[in-house]
Amino acid sequence: MQEYLPISINDVIEIANREGIYPGYTVYLPKMKEAVYTLSVFSPKAQDEATIHIDQYSGAVLADYRYDHYGLMGIVIAWGITLHKGTQFGWVNQAISLLICLGIILVALSGFYLWLKRRPGKGIGAPSAPSIKKLKGFLILMIALGIVFPLVGLSILVVWLIDGLIIQKIPQSKAF
């Protein structure tokens, strides 16, 4: 019975270089005689992601999964991760993410400030609602955002239904 010897880690690195794997990959060593070397890289750009499996004895590439092989959801997820991490477009990506974060902080602070200006007396209740005629632009914006972001739209719809069907029917809730 012939015993086969596994290839060296240096051979695995040479194969990775030959296959053009983005630097910074992780090498998973085979733990059983039938297992393979697995190289996996999640690079700063979605297009450079790869996972390959290498036979531990012959060095043959058994499977090569790259960005080009992803389906639509794989592409969306890969882009979402690199955009979220701020690595896909470098400093431009990070600057846009910073502006989004600052915008969220501004919305939270301005909401609190506007509530302070409009609150009833010295209480903690909600300010009186403005006339619906003044809110046409706001309603159009909310509908558009609800279409673009369906979960936001669904949550707005649920709150509107709870308010209209339950809270407005209970006199004690209006007093608070």
UniProtKB/TrEMBL annotation:
InterPro entries: PepSY-ass_TM
Transmembrane segments: 95-116, 137-162
Domain of life: Bacteria
Protein name as catalogued: PepSY-associated TM region
Keyword DNA damage in annotation: no
PANTHER family reported for this sequence: IRON-REGULATED INNER MEMBRANE PROTEIN-RELATED (PTHR34219), PEPSY DOMAIN-CONTAINING PROTEIN (PTHR34219:SF1)
Keyword presence, Acyltransferase: no
Alphabetic keyword roster: Membrane, Transmembrane, Transmembrane helix
